[in-house]
Amino acid sequence: MKQYKTPITRKLSMYGFDLVAGGHIYHALLDFDISNLRSILRQHRRDGEGGSLLAFLLKAIGKCLKDVPELNAMINYRKTTRFDSVDINIPIEVEYKGELIPKQLVIRDINSKTIGDVDAQIHASKHDDVETSGYISSPVVRWFLDMLPKSVVLFLFRRILGNHKTVRKLSGTVFVTSVSMFSNIPGYAVPYAGGPNAVSFALGSTIKKPVVVNNAVEIREIMHISVSFNHDLVDGAPAARFLNRFRFYVEKSPQAVMEN
Q1: 44 and 258 in contact (C-beta within 8 Å)?
Q2: What stretch of H or E contains 213?
Q3: What is the pTM of this model?
Q4: I need a surface site. Which of 11, 56, 111, 185 has the fewest CB within 10 A?
Protein backbone atom coordinates (compact mmCIF):
# COMPACT_ATOMS: atom_id res chain seq x y z
CA MET A 1 0.00 0.00 0.00
CA LYS A 2 1.16 3.50 -0.82
CA GLN A 3 -0.28 6.76 0.39
CA TYR A 4 0.60 10.25 -0.73
CA LYS A 5 -0.81 13.75 -0.52
CA THR A 6 -3.74 14.38 -2.83
CA PRO A 7 -2.54 16.73 -5.61
CA ILE A 8 -4.09 20.18 -5.61
CA THR A 9 -5.37 19.62 -9.17
CA ARG A 10 -7.50 16.70 -7.91
CA LYS A 11 -8.63 18.66 -4.83
CA LEU A 12 -9.80 21.51 -7.03
CA SER A 13 -11.73 19.04 -9.20
CA MET A 14 -13.42 17.63 -6.09
CA TYR A 15 -14.31 21.14 -4.92
CA GLY A 16 -15.78 21.87 -8.33
CA PHE A 17 -17.93 18.71 -8.25
CA ASP A 18 -19.21 19.67 -4.79
CA LEU A 19 -19.98 23.14 -6.04
CA VAL A 20 -22.26 22.07 -8.90
CA ALA A 21 -23.86 18.98 -7.30
CA GLY A 22 -27.64 18.78 -7.50
CA GLY A 23 -28.05 20.46 -10.89
CA HIS A 24 -31.12 19.89 -13.06
CA ILE A 25 -29.50 18.05 -15.95
CA TYR A 26 -30.92 15.80 -18.66
CA HIS A 27 -28.94 13.79 -21.17
CA ALA A 28 -29.11 12.64 -24.79
CA LEU A 29 -27.17 9.54 -25.87
CA LEU A 30 -26.80 9.59 -29.64
CA ASP A 31 -25.33 7.62 -32.55
CA PHE A 32 -23.95 9.56 -35.52
CA ASP A 33 -23.06 8.02 -38.87
CA ILE A 34 -19.67 9.58 -39.72
CA SER A 35 -18.79 7.34 -42.67
CA ASN A 36 -19.18 10.07 -45.29
CA LEU A 37 -17.64 12.68 -43.00
CA ARG A 38 -14.52 10.56 -42.55
CA SER A 39 -14.08 10.28 -46.32
CA ILE A 40 -14.48 14.03 -46.78
CA LEU A 41 -11.96 14.79 -44.03
CA ARG A 42 -9.41 12.39 -45.53
CA GLN A 43 -9.72 14.16 -48.87
CA HIS A 44 -9.48 17.52 -47.10
CA ARG A 45 -6.16 16.49 -45.55
CA ARG A 46 -4.86 15.12 -48.87
CA ASP A 47 -5.56 18.55 -50.34
CA GLY A 48 -3.28 20.02 -47.67
CA GLU A 49 -6.04 21.85 -45.79
CA GLY A 50 -5.71 19.89 -42.54
CA GLY A 51 -8.38 19.18 -39.96
CA SER A 52 -9.08 16.18 -37.76
CA LEU A 53 -12.41 14.60 -36.81
CA LEU A 54 -12.18 16.26 -33.38
CA ALA A 55 -11.56 19.68 -34.93
CA PHE A 56 -14.53 19.23 -37.25
CA LEU A 57 -16.89 18.23 -34.41
CA LEU A 58 -15.78 21.18 -32.28
CA LYS A 59 -16.37 23.50 -35.21
CA ALA A 60 -19.78 21.89 -35.86
CA ILE A 61 -20.76 22.42 -32.22
CA GLY A 62 -19.68 26.05 -32.49
CA LYS A 63 -21.74 26.56 -35.66
CA CYS A 64 -24.81 24.96 -34.05
CA LEU A 65 -24.49 27.20 -31.00
CA LYS A 66 -24.38 30.19 -33.32
CA ASP A 67 -27.54 28.91 -35.03
CA VAL A 68 -29.26 28.19 -31.68
CA PRO A 69 -27.80 30.99 -29.50
CA GLU A 70 -29.96 30.30 -26.45
CA LEU A 71 -27.64 27.35 -25.74
CA ASN A 72 -24.50 29.50 -25.75
CA ALA A 73 -25.49 30.96 -22.41
CA MET A 74 -25.21 30.82 -18.62
CA ILE A 75 -27.79 31.21 -15.86
CA ASN A 76 -28.19 31.77 -12.14
CA TYR A 77 -31.05 33.00 -9.95
CA ARG A 78 -30.27 36.65 -10.67
CA LYS A 79 -29.37 36.77 -14.34
CA THR A 80 -29.07 34.94 -17.63
CA THR A 81 -26.20 35.80 -19.99
CA ARG A 82 -26.16 34.96 -23.68
CA PHE A 83 -22.79 35.20 -25.44
CA ASP A 84 -22.04 36.19 -29.03
CA SER A 85 -18.70 34.36 -29.20
CA VAL A 86 -18.60 30.57 -28.82
CA ASP A 87 -15.58 29.66 -26.67
CA ILE A 88 -15.10 25.88 -26.39
CA ASN A 89 -13.25 24.39 -23.43
CA ILE A 90 -11.65 20.97 -24.01
CA PRO A 91 -9.52 18.97 -21.56
CA ILE A 92 -6.27 17.53 -22.86
CA GLU A 93 -3.26 15.73 -21.40
CA VAL A 94 0.27 17.00 -21.77
CA GLU A 95 3.57 15.50 -20.70
CA TYR A 96 5.48 17.63 -18.23
CA LYS A 97 8.66 16.45 -16.52
CA GLY A 98 7.91 12.84 -17.38
CA GLU A 99 4.30 12.91 -16.12
CA LEU A 100 0.96 13.20 -17.90
CA ILE A 101 -0.96 16.11 -16.42
CA PRO A 102 -4.45 17.47 -17.18
CA LYS A 103 -4.79 20.80 -18.89
CA GLN A 104 -7.65 22.85 -20.28
CA LEU A 105 -7.61 24.49 -23.67
CA VAL A 106 -10.16 27.19 -24.47
CA ILE A 107 -10.63 27.74 -28.19
CA ARG A 108 -11.88 31.32 -28.42
CA ASP A 109 -14.45 32.38 -31.03
CA ILE A 110 -14.30 29.03 -32.78
CA ASN A 111 -16.62 30.20 -35.56
CA SER A 112 -13.90 32.56 -36.79
CA LYS A 113 -11.49 29.64 -37.32
CA THR A 114 -11.14 26.92 -39.93
CA ILE A 115 -10.96 23.29 -38.85
CA GLY A 116 -7.28 23.43 -39.80
CA ASP A 117 -6.83 26.36 -37.39
CA VAL A 118 -8.59 24.43 -34.62
CA ASP A 119 -6.47 21.33 -35.24
CA ALA A 120 -3.26 23.39 -35.16
CA GLN A 121 -4.26 25.06 -31.88
CA ILE A 122 -4.95 21.69 -30.23
CA HIS A 123 -1.63 20.30 -31.48
CA ALA A 124 0.29 23.36 -30.24
CA SER A 125 -1.33 23.18 -26.81
CA LYS A 126 -0.48 19.47 -26.44
CA HIS A 127 3.18 20.22 -27.17
CA ASP A 128 3.42 23.35 -25.04
CA ASP A 129 6.23 22.75 -22.55
CA VAL A 130 4.96 25.41 -20.14
CA GLU A 131 3.55 23.87 -16.97
CA THR A 132 -0.16 24.78 -16.95
CA SER A 133 -1.78 21.79 -15.30
CA GLY A 134 -5.41 21.78 -14.24
CA TYR A 135 -7.85 24.65 -14.57
CA ILE A 136 -5.72 27.12 -12.63
CA SER A 137 -2.45 27.65 -14.46
CA SER A 138 -0.60 29.69 -11.84
CA PRO A 139 1.43 27.50 -9.44
CA VAL A 140 1.31 30.31 -6.86
CA VAL A 141 -2.50 30.46 -6.94
CA ARG A 142 -2.75 26.67 -6.72
CA TRP A 143 -0.39 26.67 -3.71
CA PHE A 144 -2.45 29.41 -2.04
CA LEU A 145 -5.73 27.52 -2.59
CA ASP A 146 -4.14 24.35 -1.27
CA MET A 147 -3.51 26.13 2.02
CA LEU A 148 -7.10 27.35 2.44
CA PRO A 149 -9.95 25.41 4.12
CA LYS A 150 -12.48 23.81 1.79
CA SER A 151 -15.25 26.19 2.93
CA VAL A 152 -13.20 29.23 1.94
CA VAL A 153 -12.29 27.79 -1.46
CA LEU A 154 -15.96 26.98 -2.17
CA PHE A 155 -16.94 30.51 -1.14
CA LEU A 156 -14.41 31.96 -3.58
CA PHE A 157 -15.54 29.63 -6.35
CA ARG A 158 -19.21 30.57 -5.80
CA ARG A 159 -18.31 34.21 -6.25
CA ILE A 160 -16.60 33.35 -9.52
CA LEU A 161 -19.56 31.29 -10.79
CA GLY A 162 -21.84 34.22 -10.10
CA ASN A 163 -19.92 36.35 -12.60
CA HIS A 164 -20.61 34.93 -16.05
CA LYS A 165 -17.99 37.09 -17.74
CA THR A 166 -15.34 35.68 -15.41
CA VAL A 167 -16.53 32.11 -16.01
CA ARG A 168 -16.26 32.68 -19.76
CA LYS A 169 -12.78 34.14 -19.38
CA LEU A 170 -11.57 31.20 -17.28
CA SER A 171 -13.33 28.27 -18.94
CA GLY A 172 -15.21 29.35 -22.05
CA THR A 173 -18.94 29.11 -22.74
CA VAL A 174 -19.27 25.36 -23.45
CA PHE A 175 -17.43 22.21 -22.34
CA VAL A 176 -16.52 19.35 -24.70
CA THR A 177 -14.57 16.27 -23.66
CA SER A 178 -13.33 13.77 -26.23
CA VAL A 179 -13.12 10.33 -24.65
CA SER A 180 -12.02 8.95 -28.00
CA MET A 181 -8.66 10.73 -27.54
CA PHE A 182 -7.90 8.36 -24.67
CA SER A 183 -9.79 5.14 -25.46
CA ASN A 184 -11.44 3.25 -28.33
CA ILE A 185 -13.72 1.18 -26.06
CA PRO A 186 -17.24 1.27 -27.54
CA GLY A 187 -19.97 2.95 -25.51
CA TYR A 188 -21.16 6.28 -24.19
CA ALA A 189 -19.49 8.60 -21.72
CA VAL A 190 -21.81 11.10 -20.04
CA PRO A 191 -20.10 14.43 -19.32
CA TYR A 192 -20.25 15.69 -15.75
CA ALA A 193 -22.45 18.75 -16.14
CA GLY A 194 -23.29 21.50 -13.71
CA GLY A 195 -22.75 25.13 -12.94
CA PRO A 196 -24.19 27.96 -15.01
CA ASN A 197 -23.46 26.60 -18.52
CA ALA A 198 -26.31 25.48 -20.77
CA VAL A 199 -24.78 22.41 -22.43
CA SER A 200 -21.83 19.99 -22.30
CA PHE A 201 -20.63 17.26 -24.67
CA ALA A 202 -18.76 13.95 -24.53
CA LEU A 203 -17.42 12.63 -27.84
CA GLY A 204 -17.13 8.86 -27.58
CA SER A 205 -15.52 6.15 -29.64
CA THR A 206 -16.28 5.08 -33.20
CA ILE A 207 -17.27 1.54 -34.14
CA LYS A 208 -18.47 -0.23 -37.26
CA LYS A 209 -22.11 -1.33 -37.12
CA PRO A 210 -24.72 -2.68 -39.55
CA VAL A 211 -27.13 0.11 -40.46
CA VAL A 212 -30.15 0.17 -42.76
CA VAL A 213 -29.48 2.65 -45.59
CA ASN A 214 -32.09 2.93 -48.40
CA ASN A 215 -33.66 -0.39 -47.32
CA ALA A 216 -30.30 -2.20 -47.50
CA VAL A 217 -27.97 -3.18 -44.68
CA GLU A 218 -24.54 -1.54 -44.83
CA ILE A 219 -21.56 -1.52 -42.49
CA ARG A 220 -21.13 2.08 -41.35
CA GLU A 221 -18.84 3.98 -38.99
CA ILE A 222 -20.91 5.07 -36.00
CA MET A 223 -19.76 7.52 -33.35
CA HIS A 224 -21.25 7.70 -29.85
CA ILE A 225 -21.91 11.26 -28.67
CA SER A 226 -23.51 12.31 -25.38
CA VAL A 227 -24.99 15.74 -24.73
CA SER A 228 -25.99 17.08 -21.30
CA PHE A 229 -28.42 19.99 -21.05
CA ASN A 230 -28.99 22.32 -18.11
CA HIS A 231 -32.77 22.21 -17.67
CA ASP A 232 -32.68 25.50 -15.76
CA LEU A 233 -31.85 27.14 -19.08
CA VAL A 234 -32.68 24.70 -21.90
CA ASP A 235 -36.10 23.13 -22.47
CA GLY A 236 -36.80 20.23 -24.81
CA ALA A 237 -37.68 22.23 -27.94
CA PRO A 238 -34.42 24.22 -28.29
CA ALA A 239 -32.45 21.09 -27.33
CA ALA A 240 -34.18 19.16 -30.14
CA ARG A 241 -33.51 21.99 -32.62
CA PHE A 242 -29.86 21.96 -31.67
CA LEU A 243 -29.50 18.17 -31.99
CA ASN A 244 -31.30 18.10 -35.35
CA ARG A 245 -28.98 20.78 -36.69
CA PHE A 246 -25.90 19.03 -35.28
CA ARG A 247 -26.88 15.75 -36.94
CA PHE A 248 -27.55 17.58 -40.22
CA TYR A 249 -24.06 19.10 -40.26
CA VAL A 250 -22.32 15.85 -39.30
CA GLU A 251 -24.22 13.41 -41.52
CA LYS A 252 -25.68 15.47 -44.38
CA SER A 253 -23.74 18.70 -44.86
CA PRO A 254 -20.16 18.63 -43.54
CA GLN A 255 -19.17 21.16 -46.22
CA ALA A 256 -21.31 23.81 -44.50
CA VAL A 257 -19.03 23.51 -41.46
CA MET A 258 -15.80 23.41 -43.44
CA GLU A 259 -16.61 26.50 -45.48
CA ASN A 260 -15.12 29.35 -43.44
Answers
A1: yes
A2: strand 199-213
A3: 0.86
A4: 185
